[in-house]
Every structure is written in C-alpha cells, then in structure tokens.
C-alpha cells in the first residue's frame, strides 16, 4: 500500500512543534491586554477618587497666626490706673492709648527730676574741675621745664665759676710761694674758690629741689584729678539710675502694641496679693485702681484673631 494515498489526517502539532509556541504567544498577548486595561483603570481611579476622607462635624476653630496672637497689655511701672481709654470689643490701632497710669506718690516724678537736675549740675561742675586740673597740670609741667632749665643753666655757670676760681687759687698759690703775690691776693683767691664752690653746691641743691617740688605738686594735682574723675563716674552712674526711674515713671500712657480688638479677661480666682495678682481683673471703665509693675492694666489682650466655624477633617 502506498502511504501517500492514505486520506487519514496527519496531526500537525506532532509534526510542527512551532505551533505550540504560537499558542503560548496568544496567551501572553491576552494577558498584556488585560494588564493594560487594569493599569488604565487604576490611573482613572487614582485621578478621580479623593486622597483624603473627611468626617463632617461642627465646632469653632480659632486660628492663631504667629503675627496675630493674643497680646496681654501690662503696666510697665507701678502706680494707679487713672483712666481707661478703651472698652471691651473696641477696635484699636497700633500705638493708640489704652490706659493712663498715675504714680502712687504724685511728687515722685518731680522729685526725681529735681535730683537729676542736681546731679547734672554736679556733673557739669566736676567735668569743669577736671578740665581746670588738666590745664593746671599742663601749666605746671611747662613751668617745671622752664624752672629746671634755668636751674641747670645756673649750675653750669656756677660750675664754670668754681673751676675758674680753683685754677686762679692754684696759680696764686704758686706765685705766693715764689713771693710774686701778696698775702692779700692769696686770701682773695682762697675766698673766691670757697664762695664759688658753695655757690655750685647751692645751685645743684636748687636744681634738685625744683625738680622734686614740681614733681610733688604735679602728682598732687593729678591725684585731685583722679578723685574728680571718680566723682564724675559716680555721678554718671547715679544719673543713669535716675534716668531709668524717670523713664519708667514717664511711661504712664499704655499704648496698643498692634492693631486688634479689645477682649475681656477673666476674674482672678487667686488672692490679689503675691505673684497671682499679676493678672488681676479691672473693669473696662475703672475709676482708679492700684497697679504694680508688670500687672495688667487692661483686662483684655489687645489683638485677637477671629474665630469661625468650619468642617474639621
């Protein structure tokens, strides 16, 4: 029998293995299409779905901006609250007067200014005295130089005279031994030698005394200047203290540190003495109340942010 005349079908997959590979490629393409569709669906979901979930609720949310926080306006000095210039709920501008204070001692500021005037006069007088002492030192130094120079010149002159007299005495003595001069001339030579030597010693003593006297006088004047300089430094310190006190007592007008709204404060639950009294309550329309340095002269912060209701995430 001829095998080619057989009409039975021949299995191609058994004879052609490449067909098996073709079937696997079709499955891969199908999976790729499904993955692309899923990726596009995921992108659309990410795009349209919200990133956060919200829960609705009601309430008040107060925004505290760093530049708009509540500011407690406090008394910079101790005293009495004489007058309030604002009331609760009033809108104020930066620098606007809020409260006016009054010293516990009504004559304190006048006394401080009087003390300052006295200290200022004392400072002026002390500074003038220092200038006078400086001038005196310069004049003494100039006079010392002139006097010392004159004394030195005198010493030089007396030294020359003494040397001349000594030479004259030596020559006269030799001539006397030869009988060429009289006794009187010899005695005069001795007298001249002794007197010029004494004058030289006196000139040298005067030079030393002049230097020491001027040095002592200048040292004394400089000591006076040092004492005056110490007094001036003490006066300057006292003036600084007085100026601080005057500045504090002149700050009797409390002003708003920034724009804002006057808010009410709470009444204190602690006693009105001691550290707890720093936040003592005062009426928005007081007549006169006591106030210590650092205590609140207003019962309100000056600047308050607005409050609002919104959805809380």
What does this 3D model show about the protein?
- With 313 residues, this protein is of the alpha+beta class.
- It has a domain at 107-262: Helix Hairpins (Orthogonal Bundle).
- Helices cover 55% and strands 12% of the residues.
- The chain has helices at 12-15, 18-48, 108-177, 183-250, and strands at 60-62, 72-74, 79-84, 91-92, 97-102, 253-255, 260-261, 289-291, 296-301, 307-309.
- The strands form four sheets. It has a four-stranded antiparallel β-sheet, with no helix packed on it. A two-stranded antiparallel sheet has the order 1-10.
- Helix 3 (108-177) packs antiparallel against helix 4 (183-250).
- The radius of gyration is 55 Å and the shape is elongated.
- It starts with 11 loop residues before the first helix and ends with a strand.
- Mean pLDDT is 76; it is low at 1-7 and 267-313.
So how many helices? 4
- Give the termini separation: 90 Å
Rg estimate, integer Å: 55 Å
Q: What shape does the CA trace take?
A: elongated
Tell me the fraction of residues in β-strands, as a range. Answer: 5-15%
* Topology-level CATH name of the domain at 107-262: Helix Hairpins
Q: What is the CATH class of the domain at 107-262?
A: Mainly Alpha
| Residue windows where pLDDT falls under 50 for at least 5 positions | 1-7, 267-313
Element-level helix/strand string: HHEEEEEHHEEEEE
Helix content: 55-70%
